[in-house]
Write a structure and sequence with these properties.
The chain has 369 residues and is an all-alpha fold. It contains twelve helices and two strands, in the order H-H-H-H-H-H-H-H-H-H-H-E-E-H. Helix 9 runs antiparallel to helix 10. The chain starts with 9 loop residues before the first helix and ends with a helix.
Length: 369
Amino acid sequence: MDIFQHHFYKLNYQLLSLVGLWPYQDNKSRLFRVYFLNIAVMTFNITQVSTDISSTIVPTMATMINMTIKYYTYYIGMFNIRKLLDKMMLDWKTWNSKEEIEIMKKYAEEGRLYSLAYTLYIYISTILFFSISFLPLLLDVVLPLNESRPLQPIVLGEYFIDQQKHFYFIFCHMAFTILLAMTIFIATDTQFFVFTCHACGVFSVVGFRLEQLMKDDNTMNKYFDKRRYFKHVVLSIKGHSRAIELRFANLIESSFSSPLLIQCGINIACLSVSLYRMKTLLDISTEMFKYIAFLAAQLFHIFCICYSGQRIIDHSSETLIKAYNGLWYEAPIEIRKLILLVIRRSIESTRLTGGKVFVFCLKGFSTVN
């Protein structure tokens, strides 16, 4: 578990611990966070459903439903998440050459940068979204009217009190709950990015090993050093198996496939509602800006998931090319047969799907658009 204290994974560890989803967390600490988050979200949802059900609250409720799906996908599937983390630790211990460690570090750093960029983007966008509520104050200064413009809440909600009189109380409650929800989005999504980057790293290491096979100039009798090369190829096959067969990529698929399909469906429905509301709002208003923000957030979320799926497709396919680029044809027949196992399995690229229906890739993202 020490590797998760490393700067590569520290942000993910802190975010998951904050929302009670870190698998190695103390049970009492986790339960306290789970109860607290559920109470906060429940009070917010009550204010939403107490309003007249219309298209105006659909984006907000869709966001909260997506957040709930993400949270309980991790919470209920905690055992699978722990298995994925355990396999990450095992992979770091398996590869021992300098080049292989550097490849793993490269992809771990990519995962950290994606996590950091995603975190900053979501939090900055959320704060800017909150600031729209104070746009009437700015307009009163820039384009004053005979009377002050009323302040607008972050989203529509029924608190059964005078919303203008108690505006700041309502604003703080909404802002706090939405920040909690965004933190759950960030914690779960960034860990998903780390998992996919790690899988790409394992594919890259396996490809590197196969590409360098029989290229060791220091071994003159390479045709007769069967034991050494046999061990080399076996380790590559085990690494490839860990990346695919019921180990890592397939475990990611089984853990996230159905929830991702549901989230994708909700996002697409939400996109339609947002576009419809933007079409009906002919004037430039605070509500228009909010729907533009919702639209951008939904597209960005779908793109991030599809891009992660595309990377796994690309890296699993590259294993086949790298295996061909190696000097496999100079290896003894026993080793060539083992390499063929990897080549044949790599012909069909590994894919992340939503319920075996929707393939998460850039082509899928363009189809959604």
